[in-house]
Specification:
It is globular and about 70 Å long. The two termini are 29 Å apart. It has 350 residues and is mainly β. The chain has 3 helices and 19 strands. The strands form 5 sheets. It has a 5-stranded mixed sheet, with helices on one face. It has a 4-stranded antiparallel sheet with strand order 6-3-2-9, with no helix packed on it. Strands 5-4-7-8 form a 4-stranded antiparallel sheet, with no helix packed on it. Strand 4 and strand 5 form a beta hairpin.
Length: 350
């Protein structure tokens, strides 16, 4: 059924969440967990104030250093977030889309108590011009709240393929409200075709040589369709897998890299044992798809399979945020022991 397979053992409990001594895998790698670390460009508070004002900036590409430069000059007439104190503490944040991973974010310093901040800062991206021309620049302004959620003040999006690169002058642009689709995070990143199965401990009978002493979760990553194409040559993709709340390096699994294909076929099976039935309501399988490059990998999208309760062993966690489709998929697996459950789930920002 699959060209590669890997297994890893887990010992879940409420106090100590570390893999058992017998952990083994054919695909282990020494990288740290990305659990909960991938930030969406859309994170924040959108409903508190209406977008208003303008931003002054210029764009340039340094051919010699292969560097994209965003010259952020200033903003005028921004919305007031704290009406009682009549203040906003604004900063400017940029992303290159469709790359919305943490590595794609740049931001200016925070200017306190002003709706007319002056920055005069340059935000830099090391990127090939050919790659840059298939991206969009998302430039947004935010109020910085050190004790809560930052508030969205407005944005502008620039299609870099149609940008006039001879224009290096500073120009003013009106800040726009976030679109409804953006607020809801509706951006197509592709879909993952996979099957999952839960084998309860001892459920295969005493005569079965493969009868697991503890429960097993089987994850069969079949293929992904319609991935974001970051380069003209395509995308070199692979899938990472973690079982949360275990965030140790031994929790990490990955597929091989499929090159130059926006519809990669992985056909990769992972088996996690050490699962007791009661662990299924507190655990979450995180599958993320990445574009592989020599210097850094780019996040393309992911899914989280769990109950989406926001809690794990009674502790509030941000990664227990499964969508309705992901929750339904996990619940079907829980209710159909020893059966493969097949699904086609949309990738999303995590």
């Amino acid at each position: 059924e699959s060209d590669t397979a890997s297994e890893i053992s887990f010992q879940f409990n409420k106090h100590k969440k570390t893999p058992s001594i017998g952990s083994h895998s054919s695909d282990m790698a020494s990288v740290s967990s990305v659990s909960g670390s991938v930030l969406s460009v859309y994170s924040g508070d959108f409903g508190s104030v209406d977008a208003q004002g303008t931003v002054e900036f210029a764009l340039d590409y340094d051919e010699k250093n292969r560097e994209f430069q965003v010259h952020v000059s200033q903003c005028k007439d921004l919305a007031v977030v704290d009406e009682k104190k009549g203040r906003s503490d604004p900063y400017v944040k940029t992303y290159l889309l469709p790359d919305k991973a943490r590595m794609g974010k740049r931001k200016t310093s925070v200017k306190k108590r002003t709706v007319n901040p002056i920055y005069n800062e340059v935000l830099r991206y090391k990127i090939e011009k050919m790659v840059l021309l298939i991206q969009k620049l998302n430039l947004s302004v935010w109020h910085n709240d050190p004790l809560g959620r930052n508030s969205f003040l407005g944005e502008i999006e620039v299609d870099l393929a149609s940008w006039d690169w001879s224009n290096r002058q500073l120009n003013w642009y009106p800040l726009k409200p976030r679109s409804l689709s953006a607020v809801n995070g509706v951006d197509h990143r592709g879909v993952m075709n996979l099957s999952i199965k839960y084998v309860p401990p001892g459920s295969l009978g005493k005569m079965c040589p493969k009868n697991p002493p503890s429960g097993e979760v089987h994850i069969w990553v079949k293929d992904v369709k319609d991935l974001l194409q970051l380069r003209p040559s395509g995308v070199d993709s692979f899938v990472k897998c973690y079982v949360l709340p275990d965030t140790s390096k031994k929790s990490y699994q990955k597929t091989r890299v499929i090159k130059r294909d926006t519809n990669p076929v992985f056909n990769h099976t992972i088996v996690y044992d050490g699962f007791h039935t009661e662990d299924l309501k507190d655990a979450c399988v995180e599958l993320t798809v990445w574009d592989h490059e020599k210097l850094t990998n780019h996040f393309l999208g992911g899914i989280r399979l769990g109950l989406g309760t926001g809690l794990s062993y009674g502790i509030s966690v941000d990664w227990m945020d499964s969508t309705q489709e992901e929750v339904a998929f996990w619940q079907e697996m829980m209710s159909a022991a020893n059966e493969w459950i097949e699904g086609l789930l949309p990738l999303r920002s995590l």
